[in-house]
Predict the 3D structure of the following.
Amino acid sequence: MLYFPCMDANQAPVEKELAQAHKARAMGNEGQARVCARRAAGWAVRAWYQRRGGSGWGGDAMKQLRRLLADDSVPEAVQAAAMRLTTKVDFDHSLPFEEDPVEDARNIVAFMSAE
């Protein structure tokens, strides 16, 4: 299990979702792995805003990631990871990029936990 020391009470849901993402991937379910990765990132984003003295701002992971996309204080690489996680798959369930969604989530979580 991963450990993100700054996550506090939100650490458990982040770790749980990342573990579920790995489990889904091991079972060959990339779609579910991406959903779990997105949820892990959403929990991390919510916790980051709460630690910064703001509202955790309700909403699902997609809303949290869109909030991150609109925040100019967030590094471009983190925003790019959020953009990829919010991109919808096409009719063939394909994405227009090669980046790993679980790795994108890990990168977002790492930035959020370091701040």
